[in-house]
Design a protein that fits this description.
Blueprint (H helix, E strand, L loop, with lengths): L30 H10 L11 E10 L2 E7 L4 E7 L8 E3 L3 E9 L4 E9 L3 E2 L44 H6 L1 H4 L3 E15 L2 E7 L10 E5 L8 E13 L5 E15 L1
Parallel strand pairs: 3-6, 10-12
Antiparallel strand pairs: 1-2, 1-4, 2-3, 4-7, 5-6, 8-9, 8-11, 9-10, 11-12
Length: 261
């Protein structure tokens, strides 16, 4: 058996829709959306609910390798960019994103859950894992960086909405806002569509220090970068989507009103 590592994700939720990235995923497979999300929506890497096990089934499709892993307690599907692996191999799954009721167009098959991983190592006969695999060219970094507004997005003069809050106020008061409806006015500094059935936008209003000046919002409304919007959504605090996507604060299923382009 050739000892290899899962190559890094082709460009992620995140499993996941490129912004500032040269990589491109196979659009015929919904896994593209999930795997992109970890870097594109601002999620933080997390641990998988399982560490690995023995491969009992494997298949390649749409640029991915799928493996059915027997953990000793259950059998779990995991996937990552194509790599060499054989049935019977021992693999390690250090971090992955769960996709429930995942439909693969290329396989024409629905999985109860698939864990899309950034890197999964195949163990050698001595039990060590091959860590030599790297990210493909153009792959975005995992983790969360501060979102820098494009040069043509002006954050000056944005007035706080009536009965609303600033981005900085949402961050500073987030502990008390869990489950509450929040209204924020801001400009869209980043926009991603079709991730887990939602549009993901980042809004800023010029308030807050770096790291607490950007608010992630999920919505059904498509909206472009630079647009001034009024957002109304329910705040979730310390939201953990699992295996790659953790948000100290996020507004979910928000209504978005475009005020100006």
């Amino acid at each position: 058996m050739k000892m290899t590592a899962f190559l890094g994700l082709g460009a992620v939720m995140i499993l996941v829709l490129l912004w500032g990235c040269g990589g491109k995923l196979d659009d015929s497979d919904q896994g593209g959306a999930s795997r992109q999300m970890a870097s594109e929506t601002g999620g933080q890497p997390a641990s998988s609910p399982f560490r690995g096990g023995t491969v009992t089934e494997t298949m390649d499709t749409g640029g991915y390798t799928y493996v059915l892993v027997d953990t000793g307690n259950e059998s779990v599907w995991a996937a990552a960019p194509e790599f060499e692996v054989e049935v019977g191999a021992e693999v390690v799954v250090p971090a992955a994103m769960p996709m429930q009721n995942y439909y693969s167009k290329t396989l024409d098959r629905t999985f109860d859950v698939v864990y899309f991983a950034e890197s999964i190592q195949v163990k050698g006969e001595d039990g060590s894992a091959d860590m030599s695999g790297g990210m493909p060219p153009g792959h975005p970094k995992m983790g969360q960086d501060a979102v820098t507004p494009p040069a043509d997005v002006d954050l000056t003069g944005i007035e706080k909405a009536a009965d609303g809050m600033t981005v900085a106020e949402v961050w500073s008061g987030r502990t008390d806002l869990a489950g509450e409806e929040v209204i924020v006015r801001g400009r869209v500094v980043k926009s991603l569509s079709g991730i887990m059935g939602k549009n993901w936008i980042h809004i800023q209003d010029g308030t807050g220090e770096s790291g607490a000046n950007d608010l992630t919002v999920t919505t059904d409304t498509p909206v472009g970068v630079g647009t001034l919007v009024l957002v109304k959504g329910v705040a979730a605090v310390d939201k953990d989507f699992g295996a790659g996507y953790f948000y100290p604060v996020i507004l979910e299923d928000a209504s978005v009103t475009v005020e100006s382009e």
